[in-house]
């Protein structure tokens, strides 16, 4: 059954409906970019439990859905950007139910989940939607943060070998689409990457602390490390020592950036994924203790994760 052709035999355009669920820091920007680039004839259904968020995406083709179910029954392509696995499970149960109740479970719908969640939830959701003929579920988490979401420069890590259906949608919101392999491969890539980030953030902060204690000028040290073998994203872009990088969160008292709680969440997800794969991550437990302590500290919790540099001074 071909559901993606753009015209009936009469030549009349076939309207295509898109849905976006989860309009938070990331999703709102992504939905705004999608809205701006859709064909005028395509509708964009929005849903968030926070109703006010739906008012922030404007356009003649925008529909504020009454609930998740309406998005499921009305839209051929649905994108979700939710906080955690439990939200994804709840939303997809509701979507599936609505599609089945509307008798539209012919397997033609496309669901793209860009949330950072556990691999099992992602795989189980894909399997359930496939078995119930509700549609195809593809994991496509992102890197690039809120700035990338705003500028449509996100990198999508996609759990599919075939990008033909997702590309025309995701390229409205991102600059790089990477096919990572089978279902679950996108979320696996995201968790493996963020495990490295969790460690390199702490290691970079310690390295700058060491340089400081050894009496080095940290601006000089920053130049050295960023042209030497220690260079990484945390040293170059997210430089933790205040005064060494005017564009890093450390230059603005660690405001904005990638929050401590999000980093801690992703680290725990990576640890769980490793356990399920019988892999002992040697550095994870200590890193996890550090992020737990940062999260428990009200001065650090709302800040960018590079605040760990300042916390080390205590
Ligand atoms: P957020 O908390 O700002 O937004 C989540 C949104 O989902 C909120 O608006 C919330 O109201 C909505 N929501 C929750 N439950 C819902 C439900 N049942 N139905 C409808 N809406 C519901 O989170 P965020 O920062 O936008 O992150 C979203 C996901 O992207 C997370 O998994 C996060 O780990 C990942 N991520 C975030 C960043 C970042 O820098 N913020 C970067 C990469 C990936």
Q: Which terms summarize this structure?
A:
3-hydroxyisobutyrate dehydrogenase activity; branched-chain amino acid catabolism; 314 residues; NAD binding; six-stranded parallel β-sheet; binds nicotinamide-adenine-dinucleotide; 2 domains; EC 1.1.1.31; Rossmann fold; 44% helix; single chain; 13% strand; oxidoreductase
Broad structural category: alpha/beta
The number of E-state strands comes to 9
Number of domains: 2
Uncertain stretches: 1-13
- Assigned CATH superfamily of the largest domain: NAD(P)-binding Rossmann-like Domain
Strand content: 5-15%
Radius of gyration: 21 Å
CATH topology of the largest domain: Rossmann fold
Average residue pLDDT: 94
N-to-C series of helices and strands: EHEHEHEHEHEEHEHEHHHHHH
How many H/I helices? 13
The rough form would be described as elongated
Order of adjacent strands in the largest pleated sheet: 3-2-1-4-5-6
The major pleated sheet works out as: 6 strands, parallel
> Which small-molecule species are bound to the chains here?
nicotinamide-adenine-dinucleotide
Helix content: 40-55%
N- to C-terminal separation? Answer: 63 Å
CATH C-level class of the largest domain is Alpha Beta
Known CATH architecture of the largest domain: 3-Layer(aba) Sandwich
Catalytic activity: 3-hydroxy-2-methylpropanoate + NAD(+) = 2-methyl-3-oxopropanoate + NADH + H(+)
Pathway: Amino-acid degradation; L-valine degradation
Keywords: Branched-chain amino acid catabolism, NAD, Oxidoreductase
GO molecular function: 3-hydroxyisobutyrate dehydrogenase activity; NAD binding; NADP binding
């Amino acid at each position: 059954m071909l559901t993606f052709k753009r015209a009936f035999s009469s030549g009349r355009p076939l309207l295509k409906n898109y849905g976006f669920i989860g309009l938070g820091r990331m999703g709102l920007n992504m939905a705004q970019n999608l809205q701006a680039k859709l064909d005028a004839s395509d509708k964009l259904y929005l849903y968030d439990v926070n109703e006010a968020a739906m008012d922030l995406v404007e356009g003649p083709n925008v529909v504020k859905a009454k609930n998740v179910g309406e998005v499921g029954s009305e839209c051929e392509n649905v994108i979700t950007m939710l906080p955690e696995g439990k939200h994804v499970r709840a939303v997809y149960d509701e979507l599936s139910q609505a599609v089945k109740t509307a008798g539209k479970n012919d397997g033609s719908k496309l669901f793209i989940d860009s949330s950072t969640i556990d691999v099992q939830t992602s795989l189980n959701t894909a399997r359930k939607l496939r078995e119930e003929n509700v549609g195809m579920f593809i994991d496509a988490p992102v890197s690039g943060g809120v700035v990338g979401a705003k500028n449509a420069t996100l990198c999508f890590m996609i759990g599919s070998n075939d990008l033909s259906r997702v590309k025309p949608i995701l390229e409205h919101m991102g600059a790089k689409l990477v096919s990572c392999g089978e279902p679950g491969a996108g979320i696996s890539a995201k968790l493996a990457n963020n495990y490295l980030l969790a460690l390199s953030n702490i290691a970079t902060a310690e390295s700058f602390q060491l340089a400081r204690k050894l009496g080095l000028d940290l601006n000089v040290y920053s130049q050295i490390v960023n042209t030497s073998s220690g260079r990484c994203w945390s040293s170059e872009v997210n430089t933790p020592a205040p005064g060494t990088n005017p564009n890093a969160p450390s230059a603005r008292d660690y405001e904005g950036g990638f929050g401590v709680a999000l980093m801690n969440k992703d680290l725990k997800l990576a640890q769980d994924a490793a356990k399920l794969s019988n892999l002992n991550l040697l550095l994870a437990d200590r890193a996890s203790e550090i992020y737990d302590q940062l999260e428990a500290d009200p001065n650090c919790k709302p800040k960018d994760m590079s605040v760990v540099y300042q916390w080390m001074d205590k």
